[in-house]
Amino acid sequence: MANRLFASMAGRHGATSASCVSVNVSQRKQRDFRVPSSGVAFMTFSPTAAGAEKSFWRSSLLLGIVLIAANLRAPITALGPVLSELQLHFAMTPAVAGLLNALPLLIFACGSPMAPWLTRRLGLERALFGALCLIAMGCLLRSSGLYPGLWLGTVLIGGGIAVANVLVVPLVKRDFPDHTALCVGLYAATMALVAALASGLAAPLSDLTSYAWRLPLGIWFVLAILAAVCWWPQLKEAPAPTPAMSGTHASHAPAPVWRSAIAWQVSMFMALQTLVFYTLIDWFPSMVSGVGIGAAQAGTYLFAYQAIAVVANLVTSVAIRRLHDQRLLGFICSLCICCGVAGLLWAPTWALLWLLFAGVGAGMSMVTCLTLFGLRTRDHHQASSLSGMAQCVGYGLGATGPFLAGWLHDLSGGWHAPLLVLLASACAQIVFAVLAGRNRYVGHSQPS
C-alpha cells in the first residue's frame, strides 16, 4: 500500500498540484528550477527537475509521518510488561504503579488542547520536531534508573505524544489533501503495529541483559532520535508563522470548535472507542481468568487483538475514499465492538473470537476518527483545533475506563457489571459514530 501511495503521489503530479496550490504553494518556500542555459534546455529539463524534487519531498514527508507514528504508542505499551520489575526496583505500591501506567493518558487529555496553540505560534513542522525531542528526552530519563527520572521521563513522553497526536492529521490534511484517508490509515497502522511489537518484545528484552527493564524502556530513545533526524529537513521548508497562524483570523480561532455540535459528536465517538479499547487492554486477562485462560494465553489473544486492528486500519483507509459519507463505517465499527463486548459478557470461553471482533471495530474506529478530524473541517487550522478537542475529551474519558472497571469489579465482585457498562458505551458509540459520519463541517449545520 505504501508503494502504491508513493507512486500515486508522484504519477498524479499535475492533478495534485492543482488541488494543493492554495495550500502548499503559499506556505512552502518556492524552489527555483531554472537552468542557466538556452530556453530549450529550460523547457526540456525544468519540469522534470521540478517534478522529481516535488516527488522526493512528498515521499520524504510521508516517511517522516510514518516515523512519527512509530513513536506515538510504543514508549507507552512497552511499560506494562515490565511494570512489576519497576515496582520491585523502586518499591512502589500497586496504587502508585497504576498511576504511573495511567499518567500518559491523563497527559494526553490535558496536553492536547495546547497543540493548536503551539501550531499557531511555531507552525506544524516545528511543533512536531519539538514533540519528537520531548519523547526522546523522556525515554532517556525514564530508563536512567533514578526515581525522579522515571516520573519526569513519563511526563515528557506523554507531553510529546499528546502534541504529535493532535498535529499529524492537520499536517496530512494540508500537504496530502487527495490522499488523506490513505495517509491516516498508514499512520494508524504503523502506530498500532509498533505498539504491539513494543508490548511483545518488552519482557524478552528485559531478560536479555543486566540492564533489565531499562533496555525495553530506553531503546525507544533511538527511534525517537531517528525520527527527529529524518524530520529535520522539513524545518527548512516550514513556513514562518503568520498572523493567520497566530489565531487572529476568526476562522482559525479554536473557540467555535468547542461550540460545534459536530465537533462534540466526533469527540464523543473518539472518547467512547478509547474507553472500551484501553479497558480491554488493561483488564482482559483478569476478565477471562475465571474461564481457564491463563496470563500467557491472554497475552497472545491481546496481541491478536492489536494485530487485526492494524489490518482494519489499512482496509478502512481504502474504504473511506469510496463512500459518500462515514455513517456506514461508523455503524459497522461500533457494531463490531458491541458484538465483541457482548460475547465476552455472555460467552467468555470464546474469548479469542470476541476479541477479534472488538479488534476489527477498534481498528476501524481509530482510522475513521482520525480521518474525521480532517473531513469535518475546512482547513488545517480547524483540523488542529478539532483534533485537540477530540483527543482531550477522548483520552480524558478513556483514562477513566480502566479505573471505573476496576472499581465496579471490586463493588460487584465480578466482571458482569463492568462488561455491561462497556456494552452500554459501545451502544452509545453507534449513535455518536453515525451522527459524526454525516457530511458536515465544524461551525456549519448544513450538509457539505
Overview of the structural elements:
With 448 residues, the protein is an all-alpha fold. The protein contains 19 helices and no strands. It has helices spanning 2-11, 13-25, 39-70, 74-77, 83-90, 94-111, 114-122, 124-142, 147-175, 180-208, 214-218, 220-237, 255-258, 261-288, 295-322, 327-346, 351-375, 380-412, 416-436. α14 (261-288) packs antiparallel against α15 (295-322), α14 packs parallel to α18 (380-412) and α18 packs antiparallel against α19 (416-436). The radius of gyration is 22 Å and the shape is globular. The two termini are 29 Å apart. The model is unreliable at 9-45 and 243-254 (pLDDT under 50).
Name the features.
448 residues, mainly alpha, 79% helix, 0% strand, globular
Structure class = mainly alpha
Share of residues in strands: under 5%
Looking at the structure, what is the overall shape? globular
Number of strands: 0
Number of helices: 19
Radius of gyration: 22 Å
Helical proportion?
over 70%
Rounded average pLDDT: 83
Largest sheet: none
Low-pLDDT segments: 9-45, 243-254
Q: What is the H/E order? A: HHHHHHHHHHHHHHHHHHH
What is the straight-line distance between the termini? 29 Å
Brief summary of the model shown:
By secondary structure, the chain is mostly helical. It has helices at 2-11, 13-25, 39-70, 74-77, 83-90, 94-111, 114-122, 124-142, 147-175, 180-208, 214-218, 220-237, 255-258, 261-288, 295-322, 327-346, 351-375, 380-412, 416-436.
Write the layout of secondary structure elements.
Elements: H1 2-11, H2 13-25, H3 39-70, H4 74-77, H5 83-90, H6 94-111, H7 114-122, H8 124-142, H9 147-175, H10 180-208, H11 214-218, H12 220-237, H13 255-258, H14 261-288, H15 295-322, H16 327-346, H17 351-375, H18 380-412, H19 416-436
Helix pairs in contact: 3-10, 3-12, 6-9, 6-18, 7-8, 7-9, 7-18, 8-9, 8-12, 9-17, 9-18, 10-15, 10-17, 14-15, 14-17, 14-18, 14-19, 15-17, 16-17, 16-19, 17-18, 18-19
